[in-house]
Here is the input.
Amino acid sequence: MKRYRAVLVVLSFALLTVASLSFAKDTDTGRLLTGKVVDKAGEPLKDAVIYLTNTHTKSIKTYIAGPDGAFRFPGLSMNVDYEIFAQYKGHKSDTKTVSQFDNRQRVSMNLQIAAK
Here is the structure.
């Protein structure tokens, strides 16, 4: 039983190490997606929730916009399409796509929500 636990601990450590290295690699070399969530007048929407979906895995990352409406998603894969939209007080922006065929390392876009 002790040997089984020791093997589990070693395997768990190995998996965490590989995951950490993989994340660090993506953060250094991946795509950076930034932007702002604004209303119709162009005013920032603090606390809007931004949803970023990896269209390959269907995993979703979220971000809560700061006081200036800004959001930031670092370390994104260059080989995956992403869909992004924002919600604020029951209202939703249009969904936009970041394409794997767009070779920019840094992508910036604003998301507009019609009602405040």
In short: The beta strands are 31-38, 49-54, 60-64, 70-76, 82-88, 91-92, 96-98, 106-112. Confidence is low (pLDDT under 50) at residues 15-27.
